[in-house]
Amino acid sequence: xxxxxxxxxxxxxxxxxxxxxxxxxxxxxxxxxxxxxxxxxxxxxxxxxxxxxxxxxxxxxxxxxxxxxxxxxxxxxxxxxxxxxxxxxxxxxxxxxxxxxxxxxxxxxxxxxxxxxxxxxxxxxxxxxxxxxxxxxxxxxxxxxxxxxxxxxxxxxxxxxxxxxxxxxxxxxxxxxxxxxxxxxxxxxxxxxxxxxxxxxxxxxxxxxxxxxxxxxxxxxxxxxxxxxxxxxxxxxxxxxxxxxxxxxxxxxxxxxxxxxxxxxxxxxxxxxxxxxxxxxxxxxxxxxxxxxxxxxxxxxxxxxxxxxxxxxxxxxxxxxxxxxxxxxxxxxxxxxxxxxxxxxxxxxxxxxxxxxxxxxxxxxxxxxxxxxxxxxxxxxxxxxxxxxxxxxxxxxxxxxxxxxxxxxxxxxxxxxxxxxxxxxxxxxxxxxxxxxxxxxxxxxxxxxxxxxxxxxxxxxxxxxxxxxxxxxxxxxxxxxxxxxxxxxxxxxxxxxxxxxxxxxxxxxx
Length: 510
Known about the structure:
- The protein is mainly alpha-helical.
- It has helices at residues 9-16, 29-32, 57-80, 92-102, 104-120, 124-152, 161-167, 172-182, 186-215, 219-249, 253-281, 290-310, 321-326, 331-341, 355-364, 369-385, 434-442, 444-447, 453-458, 467-474, 488-496, 500-509; strands spanning 409-410, 413-417, 420-424, 427-431.
- Strands 1-2 form a two-stranded antiparallel ribbon.
- A hairpin with a 2-residue loop joins β1 and β2.
- The protein is globular, with a radius of gyration of 24 Å.
- Residues 500-510 have low confidence and may be disordered.
């Protein structure tokens, strides 16, 4: 060890990672690493893997421990000072409920599957990189849970989040994405997560949305978001290195990788639909519209940057990318209206956008909001003013691939619902878009097995035939859902923010 201390960082990294590798003697290499052959990817020299970050375990743990100290200092100070009362509005927490239920379980699944890659990739370089990302993803899940657990003391809908992730209808969208990824081979998983999840989804989530958390007074969420984003930068670099490594190893890998990029772009893009609704509608104080975020982080950075680099290897922009661009003026409005229409079966509350929020939406979406969506919200407000609340009567048809209700419109025609279908083994399957249909047609045997929430409810597999029975099976308690103005969170928020005399009288009467 005395000599090890005199080595350079690059030498220490090599000694503690690659130099620990060995040639198998009593089993063949194919027996030791059986999972990297069946996808058709050819790797001729694993030593050509270039590590973007040469961190040893000791340096990595020291670096992450320092970040955790800063994060938990913020969490402790926020909790002790009753920081939840300084939020912009209790409505903000509806977005964080969706985050906890939909995103945090994905971090844990990523942790488990990168641990799998750390065992089953042939080369020591990518194995060690996968190990570091596995630890990162576990840390992200833990810090997100710890951060949001403080709000669980005061507000509903933050309990049973992992159970809800496995059962609740709107959470089948992110869940199906990861179920798809972890049931793929190791190289496809690297493309799915390193490209789609890291470059597309988390970039749009952890940067603009966490800025929104700060703007709405949620210092802990902003802190864990930016703490995680420094890791995400490393993960994006790892994803790009994985793509380049595979492409450089054999020309025959190029068409395989291209199809994976086509597939996982659209799968990831459909999951970002939830982020679109959160950014435009679920933050009381707006920081950036979905359209702005999409143009900056996808059109400029990915299409104008990443794919310019990959063009050298023969990779073109993803299939159906023009349809995603065509949806940027309508996506968030269609998604949030769906959440509003079905929030009687959700663990968060939804509201008609206030006048100031609608003015902001009209400014951000001058070509679509006032003409297409404001009349809908005006009608919903009339119902609320009359003492009612609009809910969709019935269950929606779901897309077989992304599992989102059929709410999206034809590219270029926001007044016509887009619906495609395929027939497989004499059974019809419906899709929300050309992208989802194309994905299904490539691998129909995989997607016919999808666990579709609406189908399962009709088959009696979700607690019973009535809404109360389904909600009990979901783990949603009375008061978690419904109109915000009548929710327990809203009543508590009003009581806590009342003047001292009023607060005292309210407490006596409760």
